[in-house]
Amino acid sequence: MVEDRRLGDAIAYVILSIGVLIVAFPVWLTFVASTWDNPTIINGQLPLWPGPHFFDNYYRILFVGTSGTTREPVAGMMLNSFIMAMAIAVGKIFISVLSAYAIVYYRFPFRMAAFWIIFLTLMLPVEVRIFPTFKVVSDLRMLDTYQGLAVPLIASATGTLLFRQFFMTIPDELLEASKIDGAGPFKFFKDTVIPLSMTTIAALFVIQFIYGWNQYLWPLLVTTRDSMQTIVIGIKKMIVTSDALTEWQLAMATAMLAMLPPVLVVIAMQRLFVKGLVETEK
Amino acid sequence: MAQVTLTNVKKVYPGGVEAVKGVSFDIPDGGFCVLVGPSGCGKSTLLRMVAGLETISAGEVSIGNRVVNQIEPADRDIAMVFQNYALYPHFSVYDNMAYGLRNLGTPKDEIDRRVKEAARILAIEPLLERRPKQLSGGQRQRVAMGRAIVRKPQVFLFDEPLSNLDAKLRVQMRVEIKKLQRALGVTSIYVTHDQVEAMTLSDKLVVMNGGQVEQIGLPSEVYKKPASRFVATFIGSPPMNILPGTIDGPGIVALGDAILEARDLRADLAAGARVEVGLRPEDIEIASEGEAGSLPFDIEFIEELGATQLFHGQLAGLPFIMQAATDTISAQPGRLWISVDPDRVHVFDPATGQRLGL
Ligand SMILES: Nc1ncnc2c1ncn2[C@@H]1O[C@H](COP(=O)(O)OP(=O)(O)OP(=O)(O)O)[C@@H](O)[C@H]1O
Ligand SMILES: [Mg+2]
Fold this sequence. Notes:
Chain A is an all-alpha fold. Chain A contains 13 helices and no strands. The interface between A and B is medium-sized, with 18 and 24 residues.
């Protein structure tokens, strides 16, 4: 029996390792490519270990920019992406927590109608309503602004639904105890609902940050100036159809940099997740 | 401290469920009132109307001569202990108790003094820094009590506060609640469907059924003179035996061939009228064959409860239970002749279920 289990474990590990290799290898290759110079890559002789140009490449891409298509340094693009992703994540959490609180805890006329209208927006992501949304944003003179980048992506129902489901699991007695303890609606929200929702908020933050960071189509439409460009668009612009013009080592370095913030967010929030999983408070 | 008065209180839930159908009673200052009744009889609804957690459809609730129908729960000067405790999971025990006082704007040192005092009374001082989920059920129960007493309210409201505890702890907490209530002298309303809790805690027992009050009185009164067949079978364990009988004369009922004297029986009843006769299992005495008022009881099996024994069997063809202290009777399955003190024979109207008492 014991042997059997060991064998089973060993097989599981082998399969897992193969899986990890398959996922990780392209990332490793990207990293390796970002540390060599362009001729090495273009000649198709890229080694499997890092080269000597790590600092040159990353310094250049971050603060100077490529010599070809996009002249902006990537640091600026990262800032744009970061502002957009943060605005989307924070804005969405703010709006959805409030709207879910209203729907779950208040009785107002057309409450269910409001809920269904919010629900309907699930079926209308930005991609579907892209023309009218673009028209609205441009009429409001929000092209090439952070508001223009973020606001249309904030408006969607996922967060509201998530919080609604969560709020409905908070026992009614907590609300009643709060009422007796003299906490009004706002105090109950601030002192009880928000602290209990912390792990849900963290989860939504991670998902929305990554969603915002990885946006491509919408930023492509609403930004025209190079200074407003996000990093995902930056990568796309660096890869030119004619191979000779693409500075592959820089494009790869940009790709590495583009991966970094989502990873950091996941790592930072992971502790909250684990805490949430271990101590299900309620 | 305050007296609580309910005047013709009604509750109709949206959707038309009439949960409380006009209830009136009052609880004197410092009194301990227990609402007891079967599941769904409207006990919680009534309590929650006093708390202000449900609107009052009709009638009036007043606390200390102030009508509170339109007053917010926080301003009614009450504290409530919930069945599942409803502690704030993200607060420490200390903060759970302090929260209400903080919302009232009580000075910090006063809050600290009161919380520490409550913790001392309830013996939860070492737990003040813990979160609710790091506590046992009994400790949570104490914290919930602590949260109620730090407020120094005029009225305590309890909704089945002990029903999530195991039997032993329940007895212990029951005694503590009673002591605490005596010591603090706070008017209390306590909802339960456990009749032992109801009997031991109350100085005013309100038995409810189907949204209405069946009987109000001292627990001993309710036990000795149940106002209806419902109360008679609800209070007391094992429940009272109910047998069909007829009126045989003033103060006399006939059960089949046997004649029983019933002292508390109305005299104006026509002979031959059908009635229901109630005999408590613990009121049964041993008699001998042929003795006046003796009944034949056919014992089928015996349950040993330790201090007492339960004899299950049939009397006049109907299921019957008798209880006796262990070793007083060495009864075997078979026939036993029994009798009942005439003071302890209860007679009810079969149609209305009302007691046919003097
Ligand atoms: N929010 C509600 N809406 C509609 N009907 C309700 C509501 N709450 C309770 N009821 C009904 O009102 C009646 C009384 O309910 P209540 O909770 O007061 O019973 P209870 O005596 O406390 O019972 P238990 O001992 O099971 O707690 C029940 O028939 C119940 O179905
Ligand atoms: Mg109840």
